[in-house]
Write a structure and sequence with these properties.
Layout lengths: L19 E9 L5 E11 L4 H11 L5 E2 L2 E3 L12 E3 L6 E2 L4 H18 L6 H16 L3 E3 L1 H6 L2 H5 L9 E3 L6 E3 L12 E3 L12 H13 L3 E5 L19 H13 L2 E2 L4 E2 L1 E7 L5 H37 L15 H12 L4 H12 L17 H4 L7 E6 L1 H9 L2 E5 L6 E6 H15 L3 E4 H6 L24 E9 L4 E2 L2 E2 L1 H21 L5 H10 L2 E6 L1 H8 L6 H29 L5 H19 L24 H21 L14 H5 L14 E5 L5 E5 L2 H8 L4 H12 L12 H5 L5 H11 L11 H4 L1 H7 L4 H4 L6 H4 L4 H11 L35 H12 L9 E4 L5 H13 L4 E6 L17 H9 L2 H22 L14 E6 L2 E9 L5 E8 L4 H19 L4 H8 L8 E4 L6 E2 L2 H14 L36 H11 L20 H8 L4 H4 L9 H5 L9 H7 L15 E4 L2 E4 L10
Parallel strand pairs: 10-11, 11-14, 14-15, 15-18, 19-22, 25-26
Antiparallel strand pairs: 1-2, 3-6, 4-5, 7-19, 8-9, 10-19, 12-13, 16-17, 18-26, 20-21, 23-24, 27-28, 27-30, 28-29, 30-31, 32-33
Helix pairs in contact: 2-3, 2-15, 6-7, 8-9, 8-10, 8-13, 12-13, 13-32, 15-18, 17-22, 18-20, 18-31, 19-20, 22-23, 33-34, 34-36, 36-37
């Protein structure tokens, strides 16, 4: 083949027009620990830090690279393509440190094998190819799939080799199937495999053999999919007698095996697809598999926490017993223990565990460490269930979907004898599919008849399977290597460079074809069939970024038409190149027997490229034709038509070198290497991106497509700056509303502190994250601002609220400084332009717009008509989507000729927070309490009380009456000049049961309202509403009277009467010192001793005369609230145990002997710890546009949807093939 140059010049270095820099690559865990670090990494200067990190961490060879190399002379091979080996035995070995090394070994290996295979007309053509490919890699114009980066060129460039791994290849000279005797001479560059499995347990090609074949693929970084429908269903007869255990048991074995293997060694989790036909006898169990497994996770999480709580409450009941030690373990004597056991039984704690706890207690134990679990994706809870290591899909036929439409019967067929195993209603089965997809995002759907009506080689059998991401669909035991073109790199000055794009499509088609010729495969069958059919997977990425840059919405006729034109042009050029290669090297082995069907498929593609609605042959569902009228670039549609004309003409003359040429893959890791804004055919996920800095940290930038789009729409530079500032923020509080340099200076902030604040705000997500002791320094916070150190360390403490700023003030400052992360409501931006910037999900806290469900499907349909294989894409759905919505999305996909798809409803995974529930539900209530009228405030307060009482009523339906004679305390204070008397009433155990509020010098109406409010609170307390709930609801409420507080030793200021009352109660009964202005002195009841930490068992060794009894007596005769849960300073309590008593009797120093105090309870201590109500890392990630799950490689919450898979924007980890 003749290779022309578009990007390089003959006789000049391929990188001559590119600048390279030396960078540091570092990837950190969220806790700051370093996952990976490499200094002096040579990368192009235009590459981002993420792209640099990914190539350095993922794709640099880490070992075996010689420090000195020598060329190995090879006959009939140009010198520049001679392979290299270590130069001597004393050579030191290390790893790759320059991206040029990677580009050179990839392009060099392709050129080397291409020369040996006869693909180049001359040495000059080979040199042109080598240079052009290196330039395209370095300039991020395109990239091959990950296994190419891992494996290709290691033997050619460095002489790296190793023992054979059981692979096979077909010799390109002899055409004979050959077993590999080397692990790297023939690389393993394929990402996508489809493997067959027979209904056989242990023989070759059977079930257990499949796990071995899968492991071989996962090791080299590839993914695999299998249709398991040949396996007999549960209850079908076995040849040796007995009945089969069914499909599901074997799927669980394979799932476990895949979960134990990291794909590519340490790079990714295994990528796997499991497919079952809709008429399999076990299809119902398969559909519900993941739904039930996720329910198990929920049960494990909830059950573990319930066990831990209930079992320790039994210990608590024993610890708090003040009678005879023997009676502590007797439920008949210890009524508290009896209640604890009864409560445990109510929530189904097994009696054996209850008995075990009692036995532990008798043996001196004071607590039990019962492991609890969470819903993190890679947590032990998920690891303990099956079905988490694969994507699941079902194959549906037109007959099944027609039966659904007609509400007809559907037969499930035995695999062994072909008889009907069961008859179900098609609509009922379809409803289960919709529910499963709605509940857990699986299974996806593959449309069997649509796939096979576009099949180029039906003479060799049906297409039954796919790779993990569903874009590669072909015969069982075949493979596909992928490459994707970065569309945005071909946009220059607002014009798409079609000639350069066609040139890239041609060269990458050639590259993928050469990769088939040079490759080794994990089994004989795959090696032979891959040689016979030579399927390729050329695709593209960044369509979402391209459309936004050009000023077209993803959900627009122009956007869909442009997508269709680019897809049609790519596949037309790919088939044209394939036919050109066939003219020189011959068509693929299976072409002759499939030529009629393949030409039929090519004509159908060509017909769609001409925009025709009719004239298709052999298709039950008509494809979506190219929209010639709405394409904004008429040249693209003209070129697409001419490309298909030539593809058909050359194909009729020479045949085709490849049975398939294109797919649209999710471009996970390689999308990061190419710095793509969007992956595959996906839209963007956020308008504001967090750009990574060298050495860790991020700073916010507007999506680079936004300014380009705004400029193209006619906005001025000043307007664009204001619009982008609205989304990203200004990064400084200098001119912010309410909270700014002037207002902060009034609180004592000096120039040094203001500089610190502004420096930290550049990368802040919320201004509140910056106003803390770590930014400002503890000395400034305590000395100048007067904030107690204990309060500074409280995770719930809000410094800005402490300074008197309202929620509205903080929100306004947040929008100005940190940005809204959306363009909705931006100054100057016209509403008719909003659609251009719509993303897959609503952006930021304020964003409401997101792409509708149908827009994902119609974009897929616009491209599917021109793709050889299929498209990997997630159809994003909002949380409020219904089961019927899921079914309708699948049905629309079928009607538009899509081959496969998968749904993802926001929040359908246990491990992910809801995007729809990020904004606190109480914001409006808080606002009303701060700024509303008296009537609005009263309504909110009443609603709070009713809400808390009713919610608690479900759990506790009876009222616990107060004792007729009860203790408590009275506190007199003056709040804002008004006297307030607070009286409390307590239960025998010291817990609060009622309050009275009395005021003087106030109108009768306000006094009566406070009186009745106190009664409402008291009723709530007696029905079991925790005091913590009232405290959280009413502290910081703001209304008059308010101001300075006199007469209270801990509360010195209050924003309202209710704020004062509940601060006082919180300090006195909950030990919430964070709400006190002056911390009460003395040791708390909860501080008394440390139990087993001091080597003392608090159950077995406490005698009746021990200090604990004295403590109980003290609590009975004195008000817990009056003492503020503190011991009187002149009272000292012995630590239980005879040794301490003996020390006293022996005349030892009583002061040194009486330093430890006996613990009251463990439960109350834990209950009094403030809960961190701040934004979690998971919630923050969701608001940034990520999925809210932690990457199982680097731990960062930067996972995004990527086709049907997930990828990490920090380290490049992906659950897919590419």
């Amino acid at each position: 083949m003749k290779i022309e140059r578009k990007f390089t010049t003959a006789g000049q270095d391929a990188y001559a027009n590119l600048d390279f820099i030396s960078a540091t690559s570092e990837i950190r865990n969220p806790d700051g620990t370093i996952v990976f670090r490499l200094d002096n990494v040579q990368v192009p200067s235009s590459w981002s830090q993420v792209a640099s990190d990914v190539i350095a961490q993922k794709y640099f060879r880490k070992a075996g690279v010689p420090s000195r190399l020598k060329k190995v002379r090879e006959k009939n091979v140009p010198e520049f393509l001679w392979r290299s080996v270590p130069d001597g035995d004393d050579v030191e070995f290390g790893g790759e440190t320059s991206s040029k090394q990677v580009f050179d070994r990839l392009a060099g290996a392709w050129a080397y094998w291409g020369w040996k295979g006869g693909y180049f007309s001359s040495e000059a053509d080979a040199q042109s190819y080598y240079d052009e490919m290196r330039f395209m890699l370095a300039s991020q114009r395109a990239a091959p799939n990950s296994p190419q980066w891992f494996n290709t060129g290691l033997h050619w460039a460095y002489g790296i080799d190793g023992p054979a791994q059981g692979h096979h290849y077909v010799d390109h000279k002899t055409g004979k199937l050959t077993k590999s005797n080397s692990s790297y001479e023939h690389p393993q560059p394929h990402a996508c495999f489809i493997q067959g499995v027979q209904d056989d347990l242990v023989n070759e090609g059977g079930i257990m053999d499949l796990w071995v074949r899968e492991a071989r693929l996962f090791k080299y970084g590839s993914g695999t999919g299998t249709n398991f429908s040949h396996l007999r269903g549960e209850g079908e007869a076995l040849s040796g007698g007995g009945k089969s255990s069914g499909l599901m048991g074997f799927l669980k074995i394979g799932d476990r095996a895949a979960g134990a293997i990291k794909s590519g060694g340490t790079t990714r989790r295994a990528a796997k697809m499991v497919i079952v036909d809709a008429d399999h006898p076990d299809i119902e169990k398969f559909i519900e598999w993941k739904v039930l497994e996720e329910q198990k996770v929920a049960s494990i999480v909830a059950g573990s926490k319930m066990h831990e709580k209930m079992l320790n409450s039994i210990f608590e009941a024993i610890r708090s017993w003040d009678g005879a030690e023997a009676d502590a373990y007797d439920a008949a004597s210890n009524t508290t223990l009896k209640t604890a056991i009864r409560e445990a039984k109510k929530v189904m704690i097994p009696e054996t565990y209850i008995k075990r706890v009692l036995d532990y207690a008798k043996q001196g134990h004071t607590s039990i460490e019962f492991p609890t679990y969470d819903t993190d994706w890679d947590s032990e809870a998920y690891n303990s269930v099956s079905g988490q290591n694969s994507n699941n899909s079902i194959r549906v036929t037109n007959a099944f979907l027609t039966a659904v439409e007609k509400d007809a019967d559907w037969q499930l067929i035995n695999r062994t004898d072909g008889k009907v195993a069961k008859t179900v209603k098609a609509r009922d089965l379809w409803s289960k599919v919709g529910h499963a997809a709605w509940a857990c995002a699986d299974p996806g759907i593959q449309y069997h008849d649509t796939v096979n009506e576009w099949h180029t080689c039906p003479a060799d059998g049906e297409i039954r399977g796919s790779n993990p991401c569903s874009e590669y669909m072909f015969l069982d035991n075949t493979a596909c290597n992928l490459a994707s073109i970065n569309l945005l790199t071909f946009l220059k000055d607002g014009v798409f460079q079609a000639d350069d794009y066609m040139h890239a499509c041609r060269l990458w088609t050639l590259t993928l074809e050469v990769s088939v010729m040079m490759a080794q495969f994990p089994s004989k069958e795959i090696a032979q069939l891959s040689h016979d059919f030579r399927t390729l997977g050329l695709g593209y990425a960044n369509i979402g970024g391209l459309l936004m840059n050009m000023g077209f919405g993803y959900d627009s006729d122009e956007g869909r038409s442009l997508c269709g034109a680019l897809t049609a042009l790519m596949t037309g050029v790919a088939y044209m190149t394939s036919a050109e290669m066939a003219g020189e090297l011959g068509a693929f082995e299976g072409y002759e027997r499939n030529s009629e069907n393949m030409l039929r498929v090519i004509r159908n593609h060509r017909n769609a490229a001409y925009g025709n609605s009719d004239g298709y042959v052999g298709l039950s569902v008509k494809p979506v034709p190219l929209d010639l009228h709405n394409c904004p670039d008429g040249q693209l549609t003209d070129l697409a038509k001419s490309a298909w004309d030539e593809a058909l003409e050359l194909g009729q003359k020479h045949g085709y070198r490849n049975a398939q040429t294109t797919v649209i893959a999710p471009t996970g890791t390689i999308g990061l290497v190419m710095d793509c804004d969007t992956t595959g055919i996906e839209p963007d996920f956020a308008l504001v991106k967090f750009k990574k800095l060298a050495g860790g940290g991020y700073f916010k930038i507007i999506n680079r497509s936004v300014p380009a789009a705004l400029e193209g729409l006619g906005y001025s530079s000043a307007q664009i700056e204001e619009i982008t500032g609205y989304a990203v923020g200004h990064g400084t509080i200098g001119n912010a509303p309410a909270i700014n340099h002037t207002s902060l200076a009034g609180h004592g902030f000096g120039p040094n502190e203001l500089t610190k604040i502004d420096s930290a705000l550049e990368s802040a997500f919320d201004v509140r994250f910056v106003f803390n002791q770590w930014t400002l320094g503890e000395d400034f916070c305590t000395g100048v601002l007067g904030i107690p150190a204990t309060k500074l360390n409280d995770p719930t403490f809000d410094l800005l609220r402490h300074l008197g700023f309202t929620k509205a003030d903080i929100d306004a400052a947040n929008d100005h400084v940190c940005g809204t992360m959306t363009l909705e409501g931006a100054p100057h931006l016209k509403e008719e332009h909003y659609g251009i910037f719509d993303c897959a999900n609503a952006c930021g806290k304020k964003g409401k717009r997101f792409l509708p469900v149908d827009s994902h499907i119609t974009m897929m349909a616009a491209a599917q008509s021109f793709i050889s294989g299929a498209i990997s894409k997630t159809i994003n759905m909002p949380n409020d989507a219904t089961i019927e919505d899921c079914q309708e999305a699948y049905e629309l996909s079928w009607s538009l000729g899509i081959k496969a798809n998968a749904l993802y409803r926001d929040g359908s995974k246990l491990s992910q927070p809801l995007a729809a529930a990020l904004v606190e539900g109480d914001d409006e209530a808080a606002e009303a309490l701060e700024t509303g009228t008296a009537h609005e405030k009263a309504a909110v307060l009443a609603e709070k009380i009713v809400e808390k009482v009713i919610v608690k009523e479900i759990v506790k339906s009876h009222r616990e009456k107060m004792p007729h004679r009860r203790k408590g305390y009275t506190q007199k204070a003056v709040v804002g000049g008004h006297k307030v008397y607070l009286r409390t009433g307590e239960y025998e155990g010291g817990t609060l049961g009622e309050i009275f509020i009395d005021m003087h010098k106030e109108g009768a109406g306000f006094r009566a309202m406070m009186n009745n409010f106190a009664i409402a609170v008291s009723v709530g307390l007696q029905y079991g509403v925790p005091l913590e709930e009232f405290v959280d609801a009413f502290t910081f409420t703001k209304f008059e009277p308010a101001g300075m507080v006199q007469g209270n030793d801990s509360i010195k200021n209050a924003t309202s009467i209710l704020d004062y009352v509940f601060r006082e109660l919180a300090v006195s009964y909950l030990d919430r010192t964070d709400l006190a202005h002056v911390k009460p002195e003395g040791a708390t009841f909860d501080d008394i001793g440390r139990g087993e930490d001091e080597g003392v068992s608090n159950v077995a060794e406490i005698s009746e005369t021990a200090a604990s009894k004295s403590l109980e007596v003290l609590k009975q005769i004195s008000s817990t609230g009056y003492l503020r849960k503190r011991m009187p300073q002149d009272l000292v309590v012995l630590q239980g145990g005879q040794s301490d008593t003996a020390d006293l009797n022996n005349g030892s120093d009583p002061v040194s002997s009486l330093q430890s105090l006996v613990p009251e309870t463990g439960a109350s201590a834990s209950a009094s710890v403030p809960v961190n109500s701040g934004m979690t890392a998971r919630t923050k990630a969701k608001m940034q546009g990520y999925e809210g799950e932690a990457c199982n490689e680097c731990g960062n919450y930067t996972l995004v949807r990527n086709g049907t898979c997930m990828k990490c924007n920090t380290c490049g980890g992906t659950s897919g093939c590419s």
